[in-house]
Amino acid sequence: MRCQRDLYHLIKSMTKAEKRQFKLFATQHARKDSNNYVLLFDAVDRQEVYDEEKLRRKLRKYNFSKSLAKTKYLLYELILRMLRQLYDGRTTVSKIQGLLEASEVLRSKGLYQQSMVSLQKAKKLCLTFEASQWYLRVLDQEKLLIGYLNQNNVARSMRNWLDSYREKSSSFAAEQQLEQLLMQSRILFEVSRNYQMDELAFNFKSILSDPLLDKARQPSTFLGQAYYLEIYALRAQTLHDVPAAARCYDELFDLWQAHAEYAEFYRDAFIRLNTSYLSYCAATRQSGPHYATALKNIQRVAVAQPEERHRYMLLSYSHDFICHLAMERIECCRMRFLAVNDYLNAGHGRLLDQSTLLNLYFHLGVFHFIDGEYDEAQAMIRQIMAIDKKCDYPNIQNFCRLIGLMIRYEEQEFDLLEYDIMTTHRFLAKHKQVQPIEKLVLNVVKKLIRVKHSREATNLFIDFYSQLQDLQKSWQEPLELTAGSAFYRWVRDKLPQHKNRVIN
After folding, report:
1. pTM, rounded to two decimals
2. What's the confidence (pLDDT) of residue 108?
3. Between the N and C ends of the chain, which has fewer C-beta atoms within 10 Å?
4. Which of these, 226, 276, 274, lies nearest to 251 by C-alpha position?
């Protein structure tokens, strides 16, 4: 069942050019001097916040208001139809889809030769981009034409068709299996903080035991090769084998550079490579040889719609900001922060997936915390809690809660701090997030609220600083590195030596 606000959100997501195009398109459905679709479209578009009751009152003089739900549904479908037509053929995938649909229409009209011509064009595109999945769909339609176009030698045509189908089915099955192995590897990488290193090594060993990942036999298709290298890159990152990860990324960038024309067709895989590499740079705290290339690749990827351009620009600026924050280049962060903030204020944050948006909000919160802007840091933390109500990302939430404890201390809200310590401890225990850094922060904050003399607090900060220095060597996970560095800077500023500029 469609939500009442779906039409509102769809209309608000449209550009001025798209809205103008829709009104031209909608005139085809007008009756006499009125157009119900345009009337409803304008009424919804004028609302700053969606209000169903106000909308009904505004439109009550029109007959269609008696069946407003139905008109809204039809308007929604009409907008989607217009958008599909507007952007039809702008990407290679949509061109293949269009050719398949044209072939089906021509076949239904008995124009079998023309139908085959459309299929041959689609097949040529599939071969150009090694698109096994789409090639199989072309073959499915081609099979229906064999009896009409090859009546003199149907048996030979069927044998040729079957050979092609077996070959492409095999390639597609291998790609699907590699994609599943890649997903398993990515899940292991994401949850690596909850496992011991030997457990991670064992799990990756079981993944790499698959015959498709045998180093002696590389995948035959481009996408298979990309998946293969991504799996080995993720394994190296998870096990903190930086040289091996660097080699895998070098090979991946070489592979994509050798097939630059594939970037638009396999856009999701291309974007994933570049964002993964930027995350790798943040984790290793150094801008690798492909850093600038990865940022440009995300910004320049071919898109069909303006909203996609905003999404990729925000994605690029976000990763650049996060990398500089991880490398503790705070002044550089300030410039990147302005670009990111402009896109968020324009409402483009909704274009990012939840994981990416939460990760961005977390790093923005850390940046504000480092800068001593505690209200802004708390605002970011509240946004994270509001989005992640089901706590699907406990790693992010646990560090948010720890930062929240330090903000409570800075603002001297000691009564609330005691309660927050208790709830944070429960949260960490429930989600099995009690690692050395969490234990240390909780222990120090508990002691701080019982301190009566400034000298006692100073000694606590000195011990905290010393223990953070020892822990710093073991930080590997990106969120842990970012949060740990923020804690380190915060406690360093509390030390008398730092105030006297002895500690840098």
Report:
1. 0.86
2. 93
3. N
4. 226
